[in-house]
Structure of Export ABC transporter ATP-binding protein:
Amino acid sequence: MIASLNGIVKRYDSKLVLDYIDLDINEGQIIGLLGPNGAGKSTLIRCLTGMEPVNQGNVTLFGDGKKPFQNKNKEKIGLVTQEISIFPELTAQENANFFAGIYGLKGEMRKRRVAEALAFVGLAEHTKGRAQNFSGGMQRRLNIACSLVHDPKFLIMDEPTVGIDPQSRNHILQAVKKLQRNGTTILYTTHYMEEVEAIASEVVILDKGQIITRGTVQDLIRNIQHEERIKVEVSHPEEVSLESIQALPDVKQVIKDGNQILVVSSANSGHLDRILTIIKEDSGVVGINVEKANLEDVFLTLTGRTLRDGGSA
Ligand SMILES: Nc1ncnc2c1ncn2[C@@H]1O[C@H](COP(=O)(O)OP(=O)(O)OP(=O)(O)O)[C@@H](O)[C@H]1O
C-alpha cells in the first residue's frame, strides 16, 4: 500500500471540507480523483501530504502510520501543485537543478536526473530557455519535471492541465501513463472527466467532501447505464425487418425514423453484430452510432448535478 486515508475529517472554521474520507492507494495505480470545483480535492492532497493538519482520522504513507510525514517518507513523494512553482528568471535546467539540490541529489546522478526529467516532459530542446519566456503549457511541464527530478515512488498531481494548450495536455497525459508503466504510483486530480477516462486505472469521485463512488471507469459506467441506444442509418429503410430485431433478447424498442433505425436495448447487450446482420441484408448501412454513457453521466446520476455545475454547492 502506497498511501491510505482513514476516517479523515477536515474543517475550516465551521465549514466541513472533508467528511470522513477513507481512501487506499495501491502501488502501480493511477487514481483519478475527479470532482467539481470546491469538492475538496486540493484539501485532500494537503492532508495526505501533511501540509494541513486533520481534525480527525489517520494518514498512512508507505505503510508508516506512526510518523507518516517524516522526511524519509516525504522524499519518496513528488507533488505537482495547482499553482506553478518555478523560478521565472531561471532556465529550465537551472530550475530542475535547484529542485534536484533540495532533494539532495549530487554530482553525475544530479546531472543525469535533471536531463532525464526535462526530456521526460518534452523540454529537452529547451533546457537553456528561461521559464519566463515559456508558454503556459511549457511552464506546467517544467513544473512537473521539477517534481519528478528525484524519481518519486508516488506522484501527486493537483489539476496539472488547467488552462493549457491541447498539445501540452496530451504530452502530460502520455507522460503520466509512461510513469505508471515505469512503476510510479500516481494520484491525479482534475475536474476534466475526459482526462480521467483516458488515463486512470481507478476513479474516485469526490463531491462536497465525500467520496461518492470508486471503481474502474468501465465499472462506474456499467453501474449506471441501464440501456444502450444504437442508431443505424440505412439507404433502404423499407428493407429492414423491424420484427426480427425486436425479437432479439433484451431489445426493448425498435423505431424507424426516416433513414434511421433506433434500437434501444439493455446495457451491454452485445447485440450490435446481430442487429447489423439483420439490417445489412438488403438495406445498405450508411452509418452507425452507439450512444455510450460517460463519467459525466455517472456524476449526474449520483448527484443530480453536472460536474461543471457541481461546484456551486
Ligand atoms: N485555507 C482555507 N480556508 C478556508 N476554506 C478553505 C481553505 N481551503 C479550501 N477551503 C474551502 O474548502 C472547500 C474545498 O476547497 P478545495 O480547494 O479543496 O477544493 P477543490 O476540489 O480542490 O476545488 P478546485 O478544483 O477549485 O481547486 C472550498 O469550499 C474552499 O473554499
Notes: The CA atoms of residues 36 and 307 lie 5 Å apart. The first strand starts at residue 3 and ends at 12.
